[in-house]
Write a structure and sequence with these properties.
single chain, 8 strands
Length: about 160
């Protein structure tokens, strides 16, 4: 497959768009959105660093995944005054540390000092929106296989 990103700067590290992140205040709202548009669930997870449950939709054949983010506490509960909305675009990168160095060399700042564990199969960091025309950009590196058997909190010992 042809790489559609520039072979310089950040672009040389991008593999593809990974997903579009949407914050919603409840699981029921996420499921209702999915039902409305016929989106199929791929897997669920929990991000400990941001105390949020996640639902990823299936993707492929030119369709990007959607990540529904259901914050349980913290700053994301107030996203768009608690109503939710489109939160970010995420790119899969080949080496999150190398792309982080490229970003820092450009004078840009990342949200976290070091990449954070997302779901157990990925590590993530974000480019601060003031450098990306107001759009929060998530960078993702795949570090393992998706655990399709996990529920929202089974990773942390509290089966829902």
């Amino acid at each position: 497959m042809e790489n559609l990103f520039a072979n310089t700067g950040i672009g040389k590290h991008i593999i593809r768009t990974h997903h579009w992140g949407i914050v919603l205040p409840t699981l029921e709202k996420a499921e209702a959105f999915m039902k409305t548009f016929g989106l199929q669930e791929d897997y669920r997870g929990h991000v400990k660093a941001y105390d949020s449950d996640l639902i990823f939709t299936k993707h492929g054949n030119g369709v990007d995944a959607v990540e529904f983010i259901i914050p349980l506490s913290g700053v994301l509960t107030e996203f768009n005054k608690g109503k939710g909305g489109i939160a970010h675009v995420a790119y899969l990168v080949d080496d999150i540390n190398a792309v982080s160095e490229e970003i820092k060399a450009m004078g840009y700042e990342l949200l976290e000092k070091e990449p954070q564990e997302g779901t157990e199969d990925i590590i993530v960091n974000f480019i601060r929106p003031k450098y990306t025309q107001g759009i929060l950009v998530e960078l993702i590196q795949q570090v393992g296989d998706i655990n399709y058997d996990a529920t929202f909190t089974s990773r942390w010992g509290n089966e829902k």
